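Fold this complex.
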Amino acid sequence: MPSTPDHKFISETFPAPVMPACSIIKLLKGQKALVTGASSGIGRAVAIALGHAGADVAVNFVSGPDAAEEVAAEIRRCGAQAITVRGDVGKEEDVEAMFARVIAEFGTVDVLVNNAGIQKDAPFHELTLAQWQRVIDVNLTGQFLCSRAAVREFRRRGVNKEISCAAGKIICVSSVHDIIPWAGHVNYAASKGGVAMMMKSIAQEVAPFRIRVNSVSPGAIRTPINTEAWNTPGAYADLLKLIPYKRIGEANEIGRAAVWLASDESDYITGTTLYVDGGMTLYPGFETGG
Ligand code: NAD
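Structure:
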């Protein structure tokens, strides 16, 4: 490899691995999952990955029912059940209605993936209260409301050993910006920093009930939320300066991490954050010795 890496060369030579569609080993067989914001991007990929691993999946969306239905159809093709559920995770009444519907349809919920998230970027001195509040409402309060509803259901049901060692699993989709400050995105970074400490505190409190709570923190993943960071060669080259592994991540790579955290394969893991980021949190500025 050249000492000054040719980013285009590297990105084309090392694409993300391609995995078979339907997993042969159904790690999540019999489990019922709810994925928020699942009609696009990472949520879509997580919902499909859970379905391919054998879980029945509720696909939450806030707008665009057709895209959510398309995700559900993909899950059904692998033999699992799937339903679509409209709801704004930032609104308590929507979250309560969403859980009631999923429990009515599936009988219970075993896995919650708190994925829904938004960005409303502005230089700090121009950041409005509305931009601050909406991002906190969706990214942090949304995860609180959904986690609380899930914990209530997990505690009500308890452990069903035929389904899982745990009474329930919560996976918070956070971000490398729960640890890396992000100028121009103060509301977003604050929301994800909040998720990090909320996740750990819930994990500590509910562990005795055999409920596991963890985060997956993606780096740069190719989705609609960050199109401008990868859709031109110049932007992509700049992005790769922040990624020691020298490629962008793909949404299904977060899906595979979520399947593992939802499964009994990770039964002793709670209160932890799994960074899926190609090394973005490794201080890439020091890549060549600092
Ligand atoms: P995305 O825009 O494709 O997905 C976000 C989803 O959340 C959309 O489906 C959207 O409709 C949904 N949503 C927005 N507001 C909602 C609400 N109030 N209620 C319910 N759903 C709502 O972007 P993405 O990249 O797939 O983002 C998914 C998650 O991953 C977010 O939490 C984001 O912060 C996080 N993340 C993404 C990246 C990345 O590089 N793409 C990196 C780090 C973290």
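The chain has one domain: 25-227+249-286.
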